[in-house]
Every structure is written in structure tokens, then in C-alpha cells.
Amino acid sequence: MKLCTCRIFAASGSVLAMAVAQPALANTSAAAPQFEETRTDLEPRAENGRQIYEASQFTRFAPQTALDMVGQIPGFQISQVSTDRGLGEASQNVLINGQRITGKSNDAQTALSRIAASSVIQLEIADGATLNVSGLNGQVLNVITKPDALQGNFAWRPQWRRRVEDFWINGEVNLSGKLGKGDFTLGLSNKDGFRGGGWGYEDVRDADGDRLFFRDVRVRSQGDRPRLAGTYSLKSDNGNILNANGALEFFEFRGNRTFLKQETGKANILEAGKDREDEWNMELGADYEFGLGGGRLKVIGFHRFEHSPFVNQFRITPTDGSAESGQIFAQVIDEGESVLRAEYRWKAGKTDWQVSAEGAFNYLDAESEFFRLDNAGVFQPVPLPNATARVEEKRGQIILSYGRPIAKDLTLQATLGGEYSELGVTGPNGNARQYVRPKGSIALGWKPSPVLDISAKFQRKVLQLNFGDFLASVDVRNNNNNAGNFDLVPPQSWLLNFEANRSLGKAGSLKLKVDLESISDLVDRIPITATTEAPGNIDGTARRLRTEINASLLLDTIGIKGAKLDLIGAWQTASLRDPLTGEKRPLSNRGRTYWNLDFRHDIPNSQWAYGGFAEDSSDYGFYRLDYFGRDYRTGPMVGAFIEHKNVLGLKVRGQIINLAGQTEGYDEIFYVDRRDGPVDFTHTGRNKYGLIYRATVSGTF
């Protein structure tokens, strides 16, 4: 659950997460390869319209897990977990032994990180429309594995930064092997933990640009996310297949923000914000597939629960002894999702059919309290309407899927169906509504030559609501509050995806992706009363266009043996009709541009590798009815690493991040009343966080 509406500088974790998660900087290890085994050939072989990579082609990277191999496939990127409601059709572009990965937190990256590299036979890339898995299009990876003996791997990633607590407990350990007649994986990790913060300033000026006051800013944050997760799979002699997975996770967050307010002619004022969260969550999933009639029936069950208590506090203390002021917003949220799904597929000639039925129950139960400091220094409760309530949705859907080749090298996949939803809110001012929404898609996969494949998909989607948007909340520092809105409905969209992949053989690959989307009932900021606002569905249609170019270049062809250069460039435009002004403007909180460059060189006939990365991005900013804000970064994030693949049998890497001295900034405009009126004051802020040092020690056992 999102912790708070306050600003926590990106250096607390998000920027660093991007910096250390790039494919060229993947934290991998294994028993180091011998010099004579080192290969530099990453050209796939073509077979039945698929690109085939043998496990031995990744020897030079000394991979420890299947994820380490996948991260080095030229031009391939693992898609993010779908935020669609329920389980639905397959969405992640990774299969394991032809099976989709069931679950949400059990995503492709997590699953692959627990599969030992020695268990991988080969990796196959095909167009999703050619596979007998409904919902997939574009490049899809199928990881073929074999049963293996018990084995494990680990990675330890300590990190150091100036003025920030050293982080010693970032790491993971995984086990995999046989259990009875099946295979299991088990992992314990804190790889998503972080230690962050920075130092800087905030300049506050009036509408004429004259300084009102100045703040020195210090930010500290830390989070730990220990997670225990495992899977079990079994294929019986009669062909029946069982898959099960489970996870238990804890998240502890502590954030501290201090501001020293300095105003000419007045005593300094100390402003302090404290944020904390103590969450735990669990997830269970299982599926069982067996033959029935002339086809195969798969039954899938899934359940997730999350308990999230958090507190945001902000206190203002004048240094001249004047009365203090402050606010506390505390909330306990329990949310859950249960899904039961059945898929029956059969083949009739060259045609693949599937019918699926799914029932889901989602809920969010929130209890909230708001306090304000009185003149006696005691926090007194303040009523906060619409902050305590329960949101529920019961949903059912049926989808029919059809797929077949319609010409040489041209495949069609189509789905048609609909969903029924009951959405309700209990508590004061609660309500309930019912909806019937059509859903469907049509996808084409075309391979005009052995080195070129093109895919397109057009679909009608029902998007996921954030149940937290129904509830009132408080920004305890800036008073950018949400009034709560019980009348939200799920947005719907028409989405067109286009993807073209061109193999360059031994030179690498090129990819072009285009997404065009038209969204109705989009959730944005709308007025609730003359002075309050909340997330709400807006009239009209929002439009989004995103283009991405991806190039993976193997530099052997120009004489740099063992070198690889990956480049990504993305641009997005997204607009809507502003519910306040009636004019067109960008969508809030949407990325505008992104680019990334990754270089890695595995020196032939040695155990050494080195490389680096650079990346940058820009956003469109965030709109409220009385506010506009934009976060930005001053220049790219740049990092470099050096790695040895056999230090007493371990892989050891040293890494430095932020070599270009990137800082973070923000500009904010606060209006007297609404955003179409006069400006009240502005904030301009800057945050530094210096160099980041990270080591990685990893190995197998």
C-alpha cells in the first residue's frame, strides 16, 4: 500500500532501483567458466519461426540463475506484472516449460531468479500469437528446464553512501531441486530493501517572485522488505500438471524529513515530518491441469491479503518558544483479493480454442484517524468524513479465445467476452452499483522473413481501480488533501499495440514498440465541493501514445570481442480535457521521455568484466485543482562496475553510481483558490545525494 502523499526524494530508493537493475549490471554469479569455455556468440538459431538460445551461449557471463541468462538476451525485456483486475488472460511475456506463471507477486523475474542456471536447457523466443496461450502477443520467452539435484545460490549487496546509514542486509538466498516426484524452489530475500536520503534546500517565493523564506532540508529513509517465497511443480505420468506457489512478506518503512525555516526578521522554525509503516502480506496460488474430453482443463486458485498500518506526522516548532503546531494522519488498511479461474482448451484441426471463466472478490477495509495539535500541546482528534469505510468488488467474466494460422507466416488470435461487476462502499454515504462491460481482443503475428517478425494487438480493456482513491486522506505537511469519492467506476480503454523485431544476426537486434490508447472514465482530480477535491472519473476521452526503440548491439562484429551495448529510447504523449479549465493538458504523473545506455565487456580468455550505464527520464508533472508540481533530475544517472568471476569461487563486483553528480529538483505552484486563478506562492527545491558505492558477492552451493 502506498505509504503517504508526502514527497520522499527519489534517492530514497526509486532512482537507485533503476540504477542497479539494468541488464548490463545484473548481479550474477556461478562457478566461474574456464577460459577455453568462454563464448562470445549470442546469435540465436532459427527453428520453426522461433529464435533458440542454448544455455552454453551464456557461459561468458557466469550465470547463476535463469534470470541472469534472460537479462543478456539481445533486445529482450521482461514485461512488468499486469495491474489488470483478477488473473485474466496471460500477460507477462515469459513462460516456464510452456506454462504461464500464476500469481502476482510471483512474477517472472522472481520465478526465474530461483531457477538454477544449470537447470536451463534452452531459451526460445516466439511471437505470442503463435502460442497456445491466450492473451500473449509480441515476443514471448519460453524457458526450457530440466530436473536437477538440490542446489542453491546467494547474493549479498552491501551499499554505502555519504550521510546515509550503511546498508548491510541487502541480499537473497535461493534453493531449488527435487521434492518427491516434483520440483521445488525456495527463496529468502531482502533485495528490495533500501537506505536513502539527501540534503538540499527549498526556496519559497510569492506570486511576484519575491522570497518569503528559505528552508534547509534533510531527508532520511529506510525500508526493509524480507520475503520468503517458494514454488512446487509436479507432472504426473498421465500428463496432469500441478503448480503451487506461496509467499510471506514484511515491509518496515521509516522516513524522517527535517526543514529549518529561515525568514528575514523572524526566529527560525524547525519543521519535522515522520512517516512509518509496518506492513505484512501473503499470497497463495495453485493451478491443476488435466485432460478432459478432447481437450485440457486448468483450474486456478489465488488469494492475497495485505495488512498495512501507517502513520504520517508533521510538527512545527518555533525556536523562540512560540506555540507548536502539528498534524497526525493514521490509517490501518486491510486489503485482499481471491480469484477462482477455469480454462478449457481444445484443438480442432489447425484451430486452437479456449473458453475461460473467472470469479474474483476484492476488498479494502480502512480505519483512519486525524489529529491536530492544540495550544496545550496535545493532539486532539478531528473528524474526517469518508476516511473510514470498506470497498468491495465482486466480479465475474467469461472469455472465448480463438487462434489459428490464416496464411503462411501469419497467425490470428482473437478473444471475445464480457464481465459483470458489483462495486460497493459501506459506511456513511456508502453505495453499491452493478456493471456489465464487454471485453475482447484481436491479435496478428506475422513473420515475413527469418529475421523479421511483426505483431499487432487491438483490445478492449476494463482497467483497475485503486480502492484507496475512494477514501479521504490528509497530506500533513502541505494540506493537499483528498475528500474521498464513493462514486468511482473502473476506466475503460481501447488499446492498440504494435511491435516489430529485426534480428541483426551476430550484430544483435532492433525493436520498435508503439502503444496507442484511448481511455474513457479516466480517474483524475475533480471538485467535490467548492473547496475540496478527490480522485474521480472525468468526462471525455484521454489519449496516450508511446513509442519505444530498443537496440542490442553485439560488438564482436567491429572487433571488440565479448562486448555488448544495449540502448533504449522512449517517448510518450498523453492528454486529456482538464476538468477545471476545459483545456487540453498532459495526464498527471505520466512519463514523458526515457533513455538508457548499458555497456558490458567480458574480456575474452579472462575472468574479468567491466562496464557502465547512463540513463535519464522526464515526467509531465502532477495536477491538482489548486496545485501543479513537477519533479526532475539534473542530468543523467551514470554508473560503472568492474567484476571478477572467480575470487575463491565467488563472483565479486564493485560498483559506483552517480558519477555525473545527478541531483533531484522540484517546482511547485500553489494557487490562492483553484488553478485557473491567481498564484499564492511557489516552492523550488533541490536535493543532493552524492556518490553511491555498492559491492556484490555472489555464488552457488
From TrEMBL:
Signal sequence range: 1-26
A biological-process GO annotation: siderophore transmembrane transport
Keywords: Signal
Protein's UniProt keywords contain Protein transport: no
Keyword hit for Signal: yes
A GO term, aspect molecular function: siderophore uptake transmembrane transporter activity
Name of the featured protein: TonB-dependent receptor
Native organism: Sphingorhabdus pulchriflava
